[in-house]
Each structure stands twice: as structure tokens, then as C-alpha cells.
Amino acid sequence: MFVRCEASILHADLDSFYASVEQRDDPSLRGRPVIVGGGVVLAASYEAKAYGVRTAMGGGQARRLCPHAVVVPPRMRAYSQASDAVFEVFRNCSPIVEPLSVDEAFLDVSGLRRTSGRVSGSPVQIAAQLRADVREQVGLPITVGIARTKFLAKVASQEAKPDGLLLVPPDGELEFLRPLPVRRLWGVGEKTAEKLHAHGIRTVADVAELSESTLASMLGGAMGRQLYALSRNIDRRRVTTGVRRRSIGAQRALGSRGNTMSPAELDAVVVTLIDRITGRMRKAGRTGRTVVLRLRFDDFSRATRSHTLPWATSSTETILAAARRLVSSAAPLITEKGLTLVGFAVSGIDRDGAQQLMLPFSGESLAVDAAVDQIRRRFGNTAVTRAVLVGRDPGLEMPHLPD
């Protein structure tokens, strides 16, 4: 069994990434509350967060909470370039980097203590140098947590934010972990926290006092096993590079506007997201079989629907048809609860991009997709659009799909 004795896993997480890029590029925004995105908050600076502004919040609510905030439109190209620059710093720091998203990653620095390169020394020294390099080379603040396990390194970075560094030594792990609220445990969202609170369970220490069977009876077998392990800091996962992407997805936050959307308006959102997903799949040479719909509602509850196709494909028409059927099946729930976010993912990814042509139309569909992709590569993504989207706001994606 693999047992790590030293706290040598780093969780590096950029602070309010989109907002920090805006403050970096416009000095007049520094020290001021900044909101990225008008209709829905894509990111908020810490100055705006101090007033209660949060990601995925409706723009109207955000402006009521912080009326003096500066609202800026998102610049996805700038964020992508900043992310690439930061990950170059990560890879210069350690050869073992596991990306989690555009603005965070795990790094294993266990083999760097005795190296003769520029980045060497103890994990704390390496983390301090990493933070300095990101600040100097990319101009962005970053927080780093250091621990013996991936789970605890991520918790440490959450506790150290913003712009901080925190080491959890192996002999102080449980002392650090147990007083924290249950929301610090991976997988514990608002609804799970409410269930735990109803039983008087508010801290990690409270969870650690319960047996696995008791937690399973409260939350289900999988969640019970997970919380039983994490509350004891049992996490044997290594930092791995080259992790295969298990799905390709996109999502859009609707805010309060989702409550009043017509079926045609919602379908336009569906078409936009599927068009983006399938375009990315073809660009990456990937196909997939399972289409997953993810919804979030006014009460912050979530729902998931999925459909598995008989063959792997990247055809926009085929995947869009499956997506529309999933939305139709969830229509009663959408009407009842009020929709605030819709997302799709295609999983069951075939990395070789193999597709089975189904007569009589799939070959024609793929030919159309290829022609559209070629035009967009040459003239830009807006050069060709679907008729249903003409005159409509294409909308902006949220950075991550919900778990």
C-alpha cells in the first residue's frame, strides 16, 4: 500500500480568477469591487464578495448587494491566455501536475527537495517560490495549500484564501480538520449539509464520531463511505498527470430569468450548448455515447438526466436530439421548481474518435458538421450559426459543470 509520510502535495488555486485578470489588466479596478458578467455573475473580486456577491448569482441581485461595484463583460480569450501562462509556471515547478480546472491544480513536489534546479527545497519553500513566480510572471494572486493528501491540501488552500499559503503538517492533520464545518468535506453541498445539521452534525469532528453504517443510513452508501473516510483524512489518491478526460461539457447560468423563459428560449440555450460541446469534441478528435443533462433550481436543488446512444458520435444533430429528449422529460420539474442553470456533458468518450455511420443520414450530418467546423476555423465562431439562434443572445458559459 502507498503511504505518503511527508506533506508534499500542493493545491494551487488562483484567487477570483476572472476578476483578478480584470484587475491586473486595468489598474483602475484594483482595490475596487469587480463583478464579471452582467446577467449572471461569472466571477467576483474579494472586494465584491465582502458584500455577499457570489458566482452564479443573478446580476440584479449582485448589484443590489453591491451597488458601487464595477461590472465588466467577460474576456474569455484573456482568461485562457492567463491560464496557459499559470500552468506553464506549474510545470516549471514540478513535472507532476494534475489540472482540476482552468485556475487550479495539484502538484506533487515530493522529489524536489534535493534537486539542483531553480525550484527546490522543502514543500513550503517550493510553494512560496511558486506563488512568487505566478505573481511575477503572470501578475495574479494565488493561494497554495500543502498537505499529505489531496483532500487536505485542497481544504488548506480554501482556508488560506485569499493570496495565502498554508501547510498542514502530518502530525497536526486531525487537529486542523476536525473543527471545520461539514461543508469543507468534498461532496457536502447545501442539501447534504442541511441533512447533517438536522441531526446536530455541524463539524468534521461530529462526522468522525459516526460509524460508516450510520452515515450511510443518513446519506446513502456512497456518500456515507466518502464522508467516513474524509473525516479521518483517509485519501490514498496520488497526483496524476495526463488524466483522461471522462466527459466534455458546457453549462449556462440563467439566474432569475430562467423562471420566465419560454420553451423556445430554453431550446435556444440547449442548441447553443450542444453546438459548443460537439464542436469541441470534433476539434479534439473525440466521440461519446452518453448525453447527460444537469439542472439547478431556485431552491439550489439539482437534477440529472442521461441517455446512452447505441454508438459513439460527435454529430451535432444526433446529440442535440438526445439533449432535447432529456429536457422534455424534465419539463414538469423545470416548470415546478424554476430553472437557474442548465448544463450538458457527453461522456463515454472514445479517444480515437471512432464513429459508426448509421444509414441513411448520419454521413450527411457529419459532412455538414465538418463544413461548419472548417468555416468557423477560417472566419470565426460567429461566421455560421443555426437559424434558431439568429437574433438571440448566445449567452456565456459558467466555468465549471456542477458536480
Automatic annotation (TrEMBL):
<dbReference type="InterPro" id="IPR050116">
    <property type="entry name" value="DNA_polymerase-Y"/>
</dbReference>
<dbReference type="GO" id="GO:0005829">
    <property type="term" value="C:cytosol"/>
</dbReference>
<dbReference type="GO" id="GO:0003684">
    <property type="term" value="F:damaged DNA binding"/>
</dbReference>
<keyword id="KW-0238">DNA-binding</keyword>
<comment type="similarity">
    <text>Belongs to the DNA polymerase type-Y family.</text>
</comment>
<dbReference type="InterPro" id="IPR024728">
    <property type="entry name" value="PolY_HhH_motif"/>
</dbReference>
<feature type="active site">
    <location>
        <position position="104"/>
    </location>
</feature>
<comment type="subunit">
    <text>Monomer.</text>
</comment>
<dbReference type="InterPro" id="IPR001126">
    <property type="entry name" value="UmuC"/>
</dbReference>
<dbReference type="GO" id="GO:0000287">
    <property type="term" value="F:magnesium ion binding"/>
</dbReference>
<keyword id="KW-0548">Nucleotidyltransferase</keyword>
<dbReference type="InterPro" id="IPR036775">
    <property type="entry name" value="DNA_pol_Y-fam_lit_finger_sf"/>
</dbReference>
<keyword id="KW-0515">Mutator protein</keyword>
<feature type="site" description="Substrate discrimination">
    <location>
        <position position="18"/>
    </location>
</feature>
<keyword id="KW-0239">DNA-directed DNA polymerase</keyword>
<comment type="function">
    <text>Poorly processive, error-prone DNA polymerase involved in untargeted mutagenesis. Copies undamaged DNA at stalled replication forks, which arise in vivo from mismatched or misaligned primer ends. These misaligned primers can be extended by PolIV. Exhibits no 3'-5' exonuclease (proofreading) activity. May be involved in translesional synthesis, in conjunction with the beta clamp from PolIII.</text>
</comment>
<dbReference type="Pfam" id="PF00817">
    <property type="entry name" value="IMS"/>
</dbReference>
<keyword id="KW-0963">Cytoplasm</keyword>
<dbReference type="GO" id="GO:0006281">
    <property type="term" value="P:DNA repair"/>
</dbReference>
<feature type="domain" description="UmuC">
    <location>
        <begin position="9"/>
        <end position="189"/>
    </location>
</feature>
<keyword id="KW-0808">Transferase</keyword>
<keyword id="KW-0460">Magnesium</keyword>
<dbReference type="Pfam" id="PF11799">
    <property type="entry name" value="IMS_C"/>
</dbReference>
<keyword id="KW-0235">DNA replication</keyword>
<keyword id="KW-0479">Metal-binding</keyword>
<feature type="binding site">
    <location>
        <position position="103"/>
    </location>
    <ligand>
        <name>Mg(2+)</name>
    </ligand>
</feature>
<dbReference type="InterPro" id="IPR043128">
    <property type="entry name" value="Rev_trsase/Diguanyl_cyclase"/>
</dbReference>
<dbReference type="InterPro" id="IPR022880">
    <property type="entry name" value="DNApol_IV"/>
</dbReference>
<dbReference type="Pfam" id="PF11798">
    <property type="entry name" value="IMS_HHH"/>
</dbReference>
<dbReference type="GO" id="GO:0003887">
    <property type="term" value="F:DNA-directed DNA polymerase activity"/>
</dbReference>
<keyword id="KW-0227">DNA damage</keyword>
<protein>
    <recommendedName>
        <fullName>DNA polymerase IV</fullName>
        <ecNumber>2.7.7.7</ecNumber>
    </recommendedName>
</protein>
<dbReference type="GO" id="GO:0006261">
    <property type="term" value="P:DNA-templated DNA replication"/>
</dbReference>
<dbReference type="GO" id="GO:0042276">
    <property type="term" value="P:error-prone translesion synthesis"/>
</dbReference>
<dbReference type="InterPro" id="IPR043502">
    <property type="entry name" value="DNA/RNA_pol_sf"/>
</dbReference>
<feature type="binding site">
    <location>
        <position position="13"/>
    </location>
    <ligand>
        <name>Mg(2+)</name>
    </ligand>
</feature>
<keyword id="KW-0234">DNA repair</keyword>
<dbReference type="GO" id="GO:0009432">
    <property type="term" value="P:SOS response"/>
</dbReference>
<dbReference type="InterPro" id="IPR017961">
    <property type="entry name" value="DNA_pol_Y-fam_little_finger"/>
</dbReference>
